[in-house]
Fold this protein.
Amino acid sequence: MTKLRFSALEKANNRPKIQVESPGKISDYFADDVFDLRKMQSHLSPDIFKRVKTAIDEGIKIDADTADAIASAVKTWALSKGATHYTHWFQPLTGATAEKHDTFFDHLTGMEKFKGNELVQQEPDASSFPSGGIRSTFEARGYTAWDPSSPIFIYDVTLCIPTIFVSYTGEALDNKAPLLKAVEAVDVAATQVCQLFYRKVTRVKPSLGCEQEYFVIDKALYNSRPDLMMAGRTVFGHNPARGQQLDDHYFGSIPTRIYDFMKDFEIEALRLGIPVSTRHNEVAPSQFEVAPTFEEINIATDHNQLLMDLMNKVAERHDLKVLFHEKPFAELNGTGKHNNWSLITDTGVNLLQPSSSARENLIFLTFLVNTIKAVHEHADLLRASIGSAGNDHRLGANEAPPAIMSVFIGSQLTAVLNELEKNGNIKVEKGDNMYMKLGIDKIPEIILDNTDRNRTSPFAFTGNKFEFRAVGGNANTALPMTILNLIVADQLDKFYKEVEKAIAEGIDKRLAIANVLRKYIKESKKIRFEGDGYSDEWVEEAAKRKLTNVSDTPRALDAYLTDKSRKLFKRHKVMSEIELEARNEISWDAYSMQIQIESRVMGDLVLNHIIPTAISYQNRLIENAHGLQDLGISNKAVVENVKKITEYIETLNKGIYDMTEARKRANKIDNAREKAIAYCDNIKGEYFEKIRYAVDKLELLVDDEDWPLVKYREMLFLR
């Protein structure tokens, strides 16, 4: 292992530079590999294109004749681009993407073929994907069905058709199908609320921009760390003398190798229609960020999954490795995926954008307050939606939002809501300015981004959108965005019914709206927090407000299976009880397996590498001490180091043995939830930090030439 370490370091320090040629103006090649509406229009007859456009806009089924026409056009386009195969590209409950490639070539006719039924539906084997008990292993059938709302694209000379994935009996086996249902739910609910103000609005679409953080290290160094390869994070490693404390990496000059890698994957991303627009160094050494502009939420989710896969593949060309794990390195900032969410009408209005018009600001306040109220009502679900073994390392680690869900809106908007709450029960006489009496006319002072940003808040309003900052870097955004759109849809439904009831009782519509908002502001006030989310004081304050603080994923997942949640999902037909229970089974199992892998990696490294190295070095120290003693020289430092090494070795031997026994006991538990909690409490909670502490102390004591693992200072300062 020691030889491997120094061989990896030598290889990392002698990498040849890879030149990346610019293909020219982005406008000349953006979405070149995407069969978007513009290409559809040029390849389809006007009648067929109209049918496709209507189907996409209205979410209706495409008939067989139209599907055949589209398939023929897509095949012609794909072959002209050099594609040889096609695949239904879907997102099973593994959190990643999946694909099965079929050739266009028909050996019987000697020609390329592609029909409408192959475009619309396929039957991949569903037996080996997680189903949470929905399907038995021997029940292999599952179906992928084309999602026309997300554009077809070419990736690695393969035509990729975005699809949903369902079981033979119709249950969703993927992350996309529930998202599409939640998007439909918020569309219906938001549209009817908009029509209280403007009848012209007929559709409302949620938008999303994903800020993707990531680490990059040399591939050879990655390959020399079994923990990174197996678990995605370093289970051991002492923090270097210089980490991120100087704040010199953030927004600093991008290292040359990383810059070449960034240019390379951005060019390919732009060809795939992914609108990447921002790149920069992040806070921790070797940490970076890429961010796209906003898109419709379904497309943005697909693009983020595609982008992560693309970054991994391009990194291989540059002899680099991208790490998306939420906490690959201890004592350094982890990796998040900030989800910037808003609602956009088909008339082009951002419903979370303050306006210079007092009347339009009543619409803005309606959607702002209802979103806050939704988070207040379902904070436990939002917490569950971002739960994972990786994200548990990050949340609340003084670098990411805590597990306590709260909303930040800034002092000026807080003052506006307080004013509206205070002035809610007003009477309007003829000629009165109702907006002035309510305090709404003051909102133009905070137009655009006049709210300060609070990086400690998990859910913050940032001028014209909400930023859900607690989502983990490795997560599929479909799940947290399903939950967010679902809870907002439910809240808007309730709001509309209350307003309609008040109007039916003869109350002026504007006053009815203001009075309901006033009630919501008062009811949801405890979810709003403007201070330091990292502080111990906030934990105490949150407890007084009776806000939940679930620090681990296994228990956070309970939120999905409460009566309240079951009714919520059923009411909007987003997920059935069977689908909810299945997803929890899968999530609990995934958690247990991740902690199990990390535990086994720890055992392997400690028993086969760390302890033998420590003993070998200790023996040399003992020989040295004896030699000095023979010369009549006493070396207390050497003796003290021998004692310390002995203590740490004993700690490790006992810790690994006890942890292995605890793992054996956990593995006998049949109930998925109880097993996940056992892994959380009895293995991770009981042993991980103790074992790590001893190993990291040995790293400081053992000769650098002997230490078997590549160190943080060697991995994190890539040039």
